[in-house]
Amino acid sequence: MDLLLDVDIVVDICAERAPHHEPAKLAVAKCMAAGGRVWLYAGAVQTLDQVMRAALRHSDPDSDKAQDEGELVELARQRLAAFARDKQWLAALAAECDVFASPDPLAAQLLHALARFQPGQIRLLTRNPRLLQQDPVQTISPSDVLVMEMPARALQFVDLATQQDRIRGPLEQNLHRILHHGQYILGPEVSALEQRLASDTGAQHCITVASGTEALLISLMALGIGPGDEVITTPFTFVATVEVIVLVGATPVFVDIAPDTCNIDASLIEAKITAKTKAIIPVSLYGQPADMDEINAIAARHGDIPVIEDAAQSFGATYKGRQSGNLSRFGCTSFFPSKPLGCYGDGGAIFTSDDALAQACREIRVHGQSARYVHSRIGVGGRMDGLQCAVVLAKLDRFAQDIAQRQAVARRYHALLAKDTQGSTGMAEHQDKIAALARGSAVTPLPWPKDDRTSVFAQYSILAEDRDGLQARLQSAGIPTAVHYPIPLNEQPAYRHLCCPDCTPVARRIARQIMSLPMHPELTEAEQARIVALMSQP
Hints:
By secondary structure, the chain is α/β, with parallel strands linked by helices. 41% of the residues lie in helices and 13% in strands. The protein has 17 helices and 19 strands. It has helices spanning 7-14, 21-33, 45-59, 65-84, 105-113, 129-134, 142-147, 160-181, 188-201, 212-222, 240-247, 292-301, 355-364, 386-422, 467-476, 505-513, 525-536; strands at residues 2-5, 38-41, 88-90, 122-125, 139-140, 205-209, 230-233, 251-254, 277-281, 308-310, 318-319, 322-323, 330-334, 348-352, 369-371, 374-375, 443-445, 460-464, 514-517. The strands form 6 sheets. It has a 5-stranded parallel β-sheet with strand order 3-2-1-4-5. Strand 11 (318-319) and strand 12 form a beta hairpin. The longest helix has 37 residues, at 386-422. The radius of gyration is 28 Å and the shape is globular. The two termini are 33 Å apart. Residues 422-440 have low confidence and may be disordered.
């Protein structure tokens, strides 16, 4: 449960007002220890400042008021700033300001602000007897917090709420800027994001689009791929990779995966190339780039077949010093909320250094329009809206730090699992791919990324012999898991007529055992240790 603090509670703590200071301080500490967030109302800043100064002045009535006023102001603001450092600011919204008929307008604002949260998610911490009596459901006193059972915050598979806490200031600023300038479609946030992403990847062009799926679809359309054409790809991926091939009328040709990375096995691609092959779509699964140099070399030997990297899970990863998304003719990524760099809806981007293809993509995303109401080609409504771009822009400044934290979480998992399954405290290399399964290990981490590339660990995935049993055991302990992906696409009802499952035996085997553990930058060592300990129980 979260707490929104009344002004008196904040001042009780910061001015150390007896006898209220200690219970208020302990109540706030108890909330935070349980994983709850403590909120301060942005509309109360001036009131906090004034009440804090009055409280400090009252605590030393014999001081020279004129002489000490400057020092008192400084002290009050220093204490308030220190207290607010690990708290969340709740913005004051226009809908909460119609309170002048209330006997206590600020209290009315605070109660109105609680309506933004789910019922039971937050309460107003106050010692105001009138408020406590008037609204016992939404308010609570420090003494009641101290005697209540406050459940710990549930462990999250992907913790978007904590990530939002870290970026709340720039996020709200970006969103409000759009509401005020009113350019909702292809506005300044869109061009700002495209320029930033192009610079970050080194690609000449970035074209933001409505989703990662649209990114792949528009890329295929820009290449003119359609009926009678074949596109080589992997069966072990999210359905969008193959869906777009079928949508343009082409035929997907499935190539099995490498067991160490779960990415397409580059050594098997050449045998599947025919005169009809018009593109290759490798997927950089789980955040690690595929063997892009090998794939590009194969494509070049066969008439420079276009390669489209599906980097939906790998944006921010590197391959031989280059950025994922800028490793082939096209790179496509997704900003789905659970991605390492996600928005709060759907969004995606296309990267290319080919001027003509970039222009084609820009036209296709606006219904094939080359000038206003001039439609030069078939297109789609595929724009990424400004509000979603604003979210990604707010996240970008922390993205490098998020990647580093995700990699640290993955290293801890790897070391814990290596110790558990191999009796070693070091990081498991597993150069024998999944041969550990043959030695009877119940749980095996996928090998650490190859030395020439990095992963952003969109997921941390393991192989489990008894996946259903392991998932059930973790679920009963409140630990969420997921399976990416349980059925290869060439075994899915919509696509199994295109390829027999026996053609991709590794994908079939991995699909039966793959499982993803909670993965996000805020995951703690204690949480990971608990997860791995539960996994090792019979």
